[in-house]
Amino acid sequence: MLGDISREEKDRIISDAKEKGVRFVDLEFVDILGTPKMCEVTVERLQDVLETGTWFDGSSVEGFSRIAESDMFLVPDTTTWAVLPWTGNKTARLICDVYVDEKTPFVGDPRSVLKRQLARAKALGFDYKVGPELEFFLFKGTNGEVDPEKMQVHDNAGYFDLSTRDAAFDLRQEIVPALEKMGLKIERSHHEVAQGQHEIGFFYGDALSIADSVMTYKTTVKTLSKKYGLYASFMPKPVFGINGSGMHVHQSLWKGSENAFYDASDPYQLSETAHQFIAGIMEHARSLAAVTNPSVNSYKRLVPGYEAPVYICWGRINRSALIRIPRALGGSGKGARIECRFPDPSCNPYLAFAAMLAAGLDGIERKLTPPKPVEERVYGFEEDKRKLLGIGTLPASLEEASRELAKSGVIRSAIGEHVSGMLLKVQKDDWNGYRTQVTPWEKERYFGVL
Length: 450
Hints:
Elements: H1 7-20, E1 24-30, E2 36-42, H2 46-52, E3 54-57, E4 71-76, E5 82-83, E6 91-99, H3 110-123, E7 127-140, H4 169-181, E8 186-191, E9 197-202, E10 205-206, H5 207-227, E11 230-233, E12 247-255, E13 258-259, H6 272-283, H7 285-292, H8 298-301, E14 311-315, E15 321-324, E16 338-340, H9 349-365, H10 383-388, E17 392-393, H11 398-406, H12 409-415, H13 417-435, H14 440-446
Helix pairs in contact: 3-9, 4-5, 6-9, 7-9, 7-11, 9-12, 11-13
């Protein structure tokens, strides 16, 4: 709330704006689909915004409010203040929470959804930390735009290739310092497995700030790619026949400075709490998919053979697993975590983190036990063997995932009835629009023979 912003914090931001010559401030938020939105004010209005917020019309924002209830309120989070490097310091940004008035958070604001689940975890004594890995593709374009019918990947390099083959090496060397100037701690950047595919990894942190970082990352990548005449896409499966883009999410619960997921005596160095959290994710994986993989295109990535997980199982060396347990150096307790491999970058990170946290907490509260880990490549298993081992599958389509979400009390409660209702409506419309299309594949397959 506005009253929670200290005078010292307001003065810090106004001083930084003057020192760096900022002229405009973008007030950013996200809609239910995770699309970034903003309105811009001049720096002369910055102090007023910090003290009184600003009204906007929510009726035109996807999933926000009805026309009769259109007035909504932006409350800036001062911890997100950052100058946009590519503007020559002319523009800064503040990420905002959405309220229905000066005191009441909007239940449909994705940031507020995540805050509610973080508060629930806190009441149980836990802090939730995440580290997402977002992959993206670069396509050749004209002025940073590309015709979807003529998409051509930017290079033919492969995983961890040197700059002699990696045509986006210079671009990534511009993106990384820009992200660092905006407060992200970058771990590494590299070319990914598929042609034209890349990843810039940033360090683990508290879920709210990392969700903010995901939005910053996507905007920065897209903006600076245009400078090079390229188009960056976070579409899960933009090119047939090669790997799609995932958003693997490393996560753990902490109690103060202690990692609640760590137990040195366990073969996987995971505590009972971690095992219960895993069981919760697996229990709700099929309904989670509608939140973590919310687009029609998401299910073109979730097919066997392209490193994306399809089967609901867990393990350490099994990269076909839904949940992988990364090794921690030297048995360090700080590194104990799980890696959920099924989410993709089309998701709203605030909703995805909130939903996964809720699923894990449900496992803890109900003291669920996960099945035995599977360390074999599940893609080669016959269906009978998978059934014998109790290995289920993720939904095969957005329609199937939406049906699972519709009947899930835990996940719908986590993201709220307003958000889940709007998300299901959008997904139903998307699915109906998709299934009624006559695709090039159908024309090629059937036109000449039927």
